[in-house]
Each structure stands twice: as C-alpha cells, then as structure tokens.
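Q: Sequence in, structure out?
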Amino acid sequence: MDRLSLRQQVGQLTISSFPGSRPPPYIRRRLRAGETAGVILFSFNAGPPAQWQRLTRALQRNAHRGALVMVDQEGGDVRTVGWAGPVAAQPLQGSPATVRRGARTAAQQLRRAGVNVNLAPVADVPAGASAALRSRVFAGDAAGIAERTRAAVEGIWAARLAATVKHFPGLGRAVVNTDDGAATIGGDLRRDLVPFRAALRADVPLVMLSHAVYPALDERRIASQSPRIVTGLLRERLGFDGVVVTDSIEAQAVLDRSGVAVAAERSLRAGADLILMTGSASWNEVHPRLLALARRSASFRERVRRSAARVLELKRRLGLRLP
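A: Exactly. Output:
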C-alpha cells in the first residue's frame, strides 16, 4: 500500500467501463497508471471466445496483469458471456448440488474468457408475483435460497473466480428495479438477510449493495449510501471484511438523488470500497472528486486507504499482480 500514490489508491476504488471491442486509449492509460481497479464488461464488448480472450489479454497487458475483470453472469438472459453458463436462469437452476456444479462449470468458462469476478449470484428473497427481480432469484423459501446462494458462491470459488452476492440487504420485495427508479422496502429484514448470512459463512469475497431505501434501518438514505447499513449492519453486526461494491451508480434510483460524483463520495463515506461505473464517462467526474477530498481530509484519506487495501487483498487472492 505504501508504494501507491494517493491518485492510485483512489483509482483502486473505481471500476471503469467502455464501449467497443478494444480498450480505448483512456482505458489503457488508466490501467497502466493504476488509476482504476479494473473494468466491467458487457455483451457489446465481445462475442465469440477468441474475441473475449483478445480483449481481456489486452486489458491485463495494460494493467500489468493486475485488473479486475467483471461480468454479470447470473444465468438465463442475464449472461454477459453468451457462450458460457449457467444456461438456466437462477429460478430454474435446481438443487443446491446442481447449482454448485453449474456455477463451477460456468466459472471455468468465464476464466477461459479472461474474467476473474462474477457479479453473481442474486441472493434476494422474492415476495409475490409483483417482485421486480422474481425471474432472477433462486427457487424456494429463504432457507432454500440461502442453500443455493452458498452453493453458487462455493462453485464459483472452486474455479478460482470471485463471486459477488447481491443486492444487500435484500431487493427481493422491491416492485421496481432500482435501475429504473426508486424503491422502498419496508418491514423487518430478518428473512431477507438469511441468504446473505449463508454467503458470508461461505467466505464470499464481494457483497454488492442495493440502491433501495430501507426505512427500518435508515429512513433517508439508499442502502449504498447508508453508514447504518454498510458499516453498522454489514461490517459491524455481520462481520464482513471483504470488498463492498456498489451496484451501478448510474442507476436511476441513484441519479434521482445526485450526480455520480456525489453518489460515489456518499457510498465511500458509508463504507463501500468499490464504485461500479457502467457509464464510460463517469470516471472523469468520480476520480477527481474523490482525489480532491482525499487531499483535503486526513480522515477521508484513511477511508480511501482502508478500502484500497481490501481491493488489493482481493487481487492477491485472485493471483493478480499488485500495483
């Protein structure tokens, strides 16, 4: 950590994105300078296996073999890498044993594509036919979903890929996807937390935050910007010390409240480690703001240092070269 400049430490808290099938100059420069932790890729970035391999090799070459390369590979229609599994959507993936085997096979395919982080599985517990994410969650009650969530995490880790459990503290009762608008989830969250507890027991390396509001925990802030939820609940009560990543900060539920730079600051102050940016221009707003804050404030610099250390530990566990 002492070898990293403050600019690089801030960079390690960002995940970048870009259009096209080749890394543009600004991504190559950012990776070479250690000013982003890695990238999230989408189906428009690559198609056949050979194209995926060319792209991810180019990314790692510029990052000195140290980039996090993320995709959304839940199963069914939510598969960034179209030729990799799981072919079935999460509700149809079967028993925990079948989920584990399928997750491992899919993770092996993703590794061949050059991916090292899967932003899956979805650990949300749905409630009724109106649940916005009902087609993306595992089958069963909270206990059954917890078993399958743990199985997916274990299967992904078995192939030396990092799993990400989402959307903490649970988005299953939302009737609106936060990508599209604001969502509020009332009532007790004990049932919602059951699969997340199971994932933490399975040593899941990343937890993704929801952008919904949970009045029982914080009446004003969305989860991804709530110290009570991120630090109080996830870190202190549940004891998670891995990497906490936001859902996309370009989600409408975020943009309804602020721009991306303010959102990133709020999430870091709440206790998040990685800011996921699905808009290719967002880094140009987020990184300068966070760097300026870190230069002015000793407490914010320490906040940056702690999160950067967690990100570097994740990279070490994945066998990546550290900056």
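The first strand starts at residue 14 and ends at 16.
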